[in-house]
Amino acid sequence: MKTLWRSAAATLVWLGVLIQFWLMVHGRPPAEAAHAIVKFFSFFTVLSNIAVGTVLAAPLLAADRPLGRWAERAGARVAIGVYIAITAGIYHTLLAGLWRPTGLQLLADVLLHSVTPALFLADFLAFPPRETAKWGSAWKALVFPLAYGAWTLIHGAATGFYPYPFLDVGKRGYGPVLVTMLIMGAGFYAVTLALTGLQHLQRRLTRKARAPISA
Length: 215
Known about the structure:
The structure is a single chain. This protein is mainly α. It has one domain (2-210). It has helices at 2-25, 30-40, 44-61, 66-71, 74-95, 103-126, 143-159, 169-172, 174-210. α1 crosses α2 (30-40), α1 packs antiparallel against α6 (103-126) and α3 packs across α6. The longest helix is centred in the C-terminal third of the chain and has 37 residues, at 174-210. The chain is globular. It starts with a helix and ends in a 5-residue tail after the last helix. The mean pLDDT is 93.
């Protein structure tokens, strides 16, 4: 059951990523395609979906290798759960109303922002890791968003491209954008603590369910 579920879930997640990649690159001359590829990997949505697809597929394809073992660790699953939850939350509250995708772009949009988060949440709840996430390691989930924020500012300063309007220094200025990033950092940490707590509760409930009933 677990193998079948993760195979299907990983397929849907990677389908969304590949459709979006095709939409951004298809039909462009080589120079434009190269720039489109850089832009593709500059969206947090894309990176968080790739992370989910990797965590779902790695235990199936590389169970005995470091990547497969890492994908089953509680800390990794909590961190990636945070990234995809933030992706869905920000998109549906701030960004979805800014455009009206159709056709393949609509399909990619639904897969990336709705289907993938739902699939990973279901996997997170249905298949808890054997270990328990550590409260003291919650800060580690902030490393990737921090690196992403730094890349966005550096890349944006060099090219003028900012993937999201709330990170657009050209229109908002560095002060407001940095304040936004600090607020988002606090949000990332809060969601990390929430998912860590959920994982602890889940482990306790699992242990109680497996405990023998005394006479």
